[in-house]
Design a protein that fits this description.
The radius of gyration is 22 Å and the shape is globular. By secondary structure, it is of the alpha/beta class. The chain folds into two domains: 2-199, NAD(P)-binding Rossmann-like Domain (Rossmann fold, 3-Layer(aba) Sandwich); 210-349, N-(1-d-carboxylethyl)-l-norvaline Dehydrogenase, domain 2. It has a ten-stranded mixed sheet with strand order 1-2-10-9-8-7-6-3-4-5, sandwiched between helices. Helix 12 (237-259) crosses helix 17. Helix content is 55%, strand content 15%.
Length: 350
């Protein structure tokens, strides 16, 4: 359906107009091969399987993710195969390896992309920056993406609750003339709340900016700065963490998600209301130059060049663990671990 956001009109697909039954009918002759069982692979494959699609998983044998797939009920030789075997058996290849993994496996996968197959992504990086990734598919296959706007863990959790994460969708190459219906079918099959249209380039630009911005990078930076100032001014660890993180994540953000920020402003104390309205533009103006720089680094390809180089380092995982350990051992998140354990369980609230 067409939805207007002010003067902008977008294509939005909901479950009401594109049913799960319709999706299964469209893909009933397809074998969906999910390559990769790391971030998005588990949630998307399990949701598709539970919704009644024919799904197989491809993963490197005896890896951590292979063992995880076995624990999740996938059966070796029946619906769990090596990456190569799954690539051969699948008619729709869901390429859900990490970006670095996609680059590494591409020369092998390309051999299995025979005429009439479909190649699916959940991220536009590989094709948008093909000059760096060297991912260049043949012209006689369909290529499309569905990108859930959340982690694979959240996709699975909300699916089991009967809910869904909104996803973007895009068509890169429509060889069969049926790419759109395949795309929407998988989007509904993985449990999307609704689907909105984009293109591969816009998906990766917005995704990389979001990850480095308000979704993870910027929010961690703001958390760290506010916590540090409160502690330096003599506030206790508990008070500093609660005012910085706990109240936001446990109380306010769920309400903002449900009602909107304007509702939040209208339903807080007049002191908080006045302060928030007076200060938010200062934070916007302070961060606009950073976001402008960030978008330029992403769109120019410099950010992708940097992360491909870093992720290709044979010692990347070891270095990553050190960085995460440093974050974990910071006072901010050590306090957070303690406070999370103090939250009352639902059974204690009766």
């Amino acid at each position: 359906m067409k939805i207007k956001f002010g003067s902008i009109e977008e294509n939005i697909i909901t479950r009401n107009e594109f049913s799960l039954y319709k999706a299964k009918e469209i893909l009933k002759q397809e074998t969906i091969a999910v390559l990769g069982y790391g971030v998005q692979g588990p949630g998307q494959s399990l949701n598709l399987r539970d919704n009644g699609f024919k799904v197989i998983v491809g993963q490197r044998k005896h890896s951590f993710s292979w063992k995880k797939a076995l624990k999740d009920g996938w059966i070796e030789g029946e619906n769990l195969f090596s990456l190569e075997d799954a690539s051969e058996k699948g008619t729709i290849i869901m390429y859900l390896l990490s970006d670095a993994g996609q680059i590494y496996f591409w020369p092998t996968l390309s051999k299995y992309l025979t005429e009439g197959k479909s190649l699916y992504f959940s991220h536009g990086l590989g094709l948008t920056f093909h000059d760096q990734t060297k991912i260049s598919p043949p012209e006689n296959i369909d290529i499309f993406l569905v990108a859930p706007k959340g982690s694979g863990t959240s996709l699975r959790k909300l699916f089991k609750q009967g809910k869904g994460i909104n996803s973007s969708y895009a068509i890169y190459q429509d060889y069969s003339g049926k790419s759109l219906e395949k795309t929407l079918s998988i989007g509904i099959g993985i449990g999307s709340g609704y689907l909105f249209e984009t293109n591969f380039q816009n998906e990766v630009y917005s995704d990389l900016v979001g990850e480095r911005g308000t979704l993870m990078g910027a929010i961690q930076g703001i958390f760290a700065a506010q916590y540090q100032i409160l502690r330096e001014k003599g506030h206790s660890p508990s008070e500093s963490f609660n005012e910085t993180v706990e109240e936001l994540t446990q109380s306010l953000m769920p309400l903002v998600s449900e009602k909107g920020m304007d509702w939040m402003y209208a339903n807080c104390s007049t002191t908080a209301q006045r302060g928030a309205l007076d200060w938010w533009k200062k934070f916007r103006d302070a961060t606009l130059p950073i976001f402008n720089e960030l978008y330029h680094e992403v769109s120019s390809g410099k950010e992708v060049k940097r992360i491909i180089k870093a992720n290709s380092d044979i010692n990347y995982r070891e270095k990553l663990q050190k960085e995460l350990q440093n974050l974990r051992q910071s006072e901010l998140w050590k306090v957070g671990s303690i406070i999370r354990n103090l939250r009352p369980e639902k059974k204690d609230q009766n």
